[in-house]
Predict the structure of MFS transporter.
Amino acid sequence: MYSDITFARFRQFPPLMWVLLLGSFFTRGSYFMVWPFLAVILYEKFALTATQVGLVLSNAAIIAVFTSFIGSSLSDHFGRRRLMYFTGVLYVISFSLLAQVNSVSGYVVVMTLCAIATSLWRPLTAATIGDIIAEPQTRELAMQSLYFMVNAGCAVGPMAGVWMGLTGKQSSFYITAVAFALLILMLHWGFKRQQQRPIVQLDNAQPTAKYGMGMTLKVLLADRLLQCLILANILCMFIYAQTDSSLVQYLTRAEAPGLLSLISSIIFTNACVIISSQFLLLKLLASYPLTRRIQIGLLLLLVSQLWLALNPIELFWGWIGAIVVLSLGETILFPTMNVHIDRLAPDHLRGAYFGAASAYDFGFALAPLGGGIILDHWGGPALFVTAASLTVLVIYLYRILDRLPRPDFTSLSKPQSDSPRVD
């Protein structure tokens, strides 16, 4: 199925979709104003080693992955809206606490809460888009647009933080907490408007999806294609997250000139490349199958890792150039992964499939620890050579993907109603 970018399709977005887009911009902007500098705060405040910082970050993310699948699967039964409200409140509480903690153990607990909220929010949002937009090409455009708005926020957030003098300050986590409090109010308005034009059930009736957790797991375990896809994307996320976490540690410990400006510039460059190229690349690659698009993105990811491995520590524009290549690959990869899952998932198991896909986050979870160990023992160049080697493995897994069997959904027990619930 080809991609289609037209203003007519944008006009098909329901009000709730626009709430998700606008909310993503402001919350991601405030989030990336402070979160990427957390490794710097831990290093400067507690003098932790790269491995210790990685362990703190990985511990939070690993716990969050397990809660993500359970929460997303339950949303097929009890509704997206309740869980989205709960997640929003959890964001507000966790970021408010993060602005106050003064011990390593406190950071571990609160960062775990933040990671759980993040791991719930992403699949819930993706599944909700599938619920409220019926036409596949409009749904793909909605997911691409969501990714665009997230990165627009990523572009504005770090630079705004530097401009306001907030970057690296613990108190700035309050800004993120306020942003999510406002998003909860926006969601309340959006869900009320959605009730006036429902595509799925939004009332408070009894849950209509009767798939038990056992049957859901049976379907997921029978889907070999999904399992290979999850493994490939776990590795992909592990590779990408080295730039998100370990690169910051590498630059910090190597005392790169103008460290905070360099980190902000890397984040800003990443987001700006995505913003400026996303829809152009989508248009250019519209006729390509999803897996072919992903393979092109992986080749760009491979080039970026080799570049990072070879770049001298003092060469500012070398780092920026590698991030440009990385960002082009990310622009193709990340939104296409969500679209891929959306097309693989049966309608009545959309939440479960997006929840299973949240296992990708194991890659993000293990990246700080794995990257920290490699940094402590072998250094930055070895880290990125390792990431390049793993990229070659991911490319191979995607080549064999279409040969793998999938379950016969018609032969498995079906729920009494195939309509997922948003409420």
